[in-house]
Amino acid sequence: MRIGILGSGDVGRSLTLGFLGRGDEVMIGTRDPAKLQRWHEETAPSARIGRFEETARFGEAIALATLWSGTESALDLAGRDNLRGKVIIDVTNPLVFPGEGPPELALGHSDSGGEQVQRWLMEAHVVKAFNTVGNGLFVKPDLAGGPPTMFYCGNDEEAKRFVRGVITDFGWEPFDVGGIEGARLLEPLCILWVVYAMHVRSRRHAFKVLSG
Length: 212
Ligand SMILES: NC(=O)c1ccc[n+]([C@@H]2O[C@H](COP(=O)([O-])OP(=O)(O)OC[C@H]3O[C@@H](n4cnc5c(N)ncnc54)[C@H](OP(=O)(O)O)[C@@H]3O)[C@@H](O)[C@H]2O)c1
Known about the structure:
By secondary structure, the protein is of the alpha/beta class. It is built from 7 helices and 10 strands. The protein has one domain (2-200): Rossmann fold (3-Layer(aba) Sandwich), CATH 3.40.50.
């Protein structure tokens, strides 16, 4: 499948490697393709590099991996028509960085970044996923406690089936939280993950639901 990754930071790069490992064709999108040249040559030569618009056109499915404050602008550059009808895996977290401590949410409780992305892309199928863990564990998380739980949510069942497959292929146990308003629960988990990371000075942890 052709996957377009909108965002070229650590998250976009980790997802690129994950999708390439799954056998997908991948284009990673940025405003400045030149800055990805070295990483491309050294780490992901089989990926394509594009601007946001080319990447949005290329992808049959899209992963959104942009800084929250730049997300609407990135979607404008991508062209909303190029995203119509597509699955959008929303990995963003609506964070603000007030000072030395952990980040805070720019919105929440009665709204979420996932719902905002769905409003920006009314004709696409937004599924929130991969926002509750650091990017170093996105693909094949080799944790002693076994496969962790990847929570995901979205309004479209077919889109969620696709994302569930990606989550499983990446080595996680998928858990469907329901409609996109479930992002109100998933986005604060990102802050909890960061607070734990600050306490234990490590990024090798993930959430897992235990039962029985
Ligand atoms: N870091 C993690 O481990 C992690 C884990 C889960 C979720 N997240 C979330 O995933 C998202 C990406 O994280 P990251 O660490 O990879 O972020 P990042 O490096 O800060 O940003 C990634 C992308 O945002 C784009 N961007 C920034 N400002 C923009 C603007 N004004 N207009 C258009 N595009 C703009 C950049 O475009 P250019 O390429 O053109 O510079 C870049 O491609 C964030 O929302 C983050 O909260 C992060």
